[in-house]
Write a structure and sequence with these properties.
Shape: globular
Structural class: mainly alpha
Helix content: 55-70%
Number of helices: 7
Number of strands: 2
Order of helices and strands: HEHEHHHHH
Radius of gyration: 19 Å
C-alpha cells in the first residue's frame, strides 16, 4: 500500500475491544474502547471452546449498552454441557455449522444456568474490584506511580460490569 509523503503511520497495538490488554502490555488506557474482556479466566482452553470464541478479544462485555458478546454465551454453555457429551457435541456442531435455530434452542433451554453463572461471575468480580481499589488507595502514589492509571482501568471495567449486570443479567435472573 502506498502512503503519501507526510502522512502519519499508525500502528494498532492491541485489539480495540479489549483495553485491559492494551493497559497491561503498554501501560495506557483507551477509555473510548467499546468493550472489555469479560474476565472469565477459569475455563481450560480446548480447540472447541477456542473455536467458539474463547479469547480475550472475543469474550466481551460492552461498555456503553451493557451487552454481552455471543461468544461469552457460547463458551459458557459449551462448558456447562461438559457432563452431557452428546448434547455438548450437538451444540458445538450447531455453532460450527451455522445452525442458528438449533443453537438458539440450546441457549433458550439452558438460559437460566448460563445467566446464573454470569451473575455469580460479575457479582464476584465487582467485589474483587472494590478490594483492589481499597488496596491501591492504601499505597503511596509517589512510590507507586501507576496507581492512578490502575484505578482508572478498574473504574472503566467496573462501569462495564455494572452496565452488563443492570442491562443484561438482572432483567433475566433478577436482583439479590
Amino acid at each position: 500500500m502506498d502512503v503519501p509523503a507526510g502522512s502519519p503511520l499508525l500502528i494498532c497495538y492491541a485489539n480495540p475491544y479489549n483495553p485491559s490488554a492494551l493497559f497491561a502490555k503498554y501501560g495506557f488506557l483507551d477509555e473510548n474502547a467499546p468493550a472489555t474482556f469479560c474476565k472469565i479466566m477459569d475455563i481450560i482452553p480446548s480447540t472447541e471452546n477456542r473455536n467458539l470464541g474463547l479469547s480475550f478479544s472475543r469474550m466481551l462485555f460492552y461498555h456503553e449498552n451493557g451487552g454481552i458478546s455471543e461468544e461469552v454465551f457460547d463458551v459458557l454453555l459449551f462448558e456447562h454441557l461438559s457432563g452431557e457429551w452428546q448434547t455438548q457435541k450437538d451444540f458445538y456442531n450447531a455453532c460450527m455449522n451455522g445452525d442458528v435455530d438449533t443453537k438458539a434452542a440450546y441457549h433458550q433451554q439452558y438460559l437460566g444456568d448460563v445467566m446464573g453463572r454470569l451473575k455469580k461471575h460479575v457479582d464476584t468480580f465487582l467485589i474483587e474490584l472494590d478490594k483492589l481499589d481499597e488496596k491501591a488507595a492504601s499505597k503511596d502514589i509517589e512510590t507507586h506511580t501507576r496507581i492512578p492509571k490502575i484505578m482508572a482501568h478498574n473504574a472503566f471495567v467496573r462501569e462495564a460490569f455494572i452496565r452488563v449486570k443492570q442491562n443484561s443479567i438482572d432483567p433475566v435472573v433478577g436482583y439479590e
